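Weekly puzzle thread! Below is a chain. First person to post its structure in token form gets bragging rights.
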Amino acid sequence: MYLRMLVLQHQKEKKFISLLITLVVGVMIWSIGAPQGLDEKAWHLFSIFVATIIGLIIKPSQQERHPC
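Winning reply:
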């Protein structure tokens, strides 16, 4: 029972870290500002796209099989 609780807590921490990484990358790209010649709305959409792709890449890589 205790081992299962530790595993669940570890999984929650991993989910939080992956969410944090995704948000930080998205906010960083958003706040850098659009390159010259690119519309601000397009740049914001790009930052959302990149953050989504990073979230999709991180999530499957953190799924582990536990023998519990």
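Puzzle host: Confirmed. Bonus trivia for everyone else. The CA atoms of residues 34 and 43 lie 5 Å apart.
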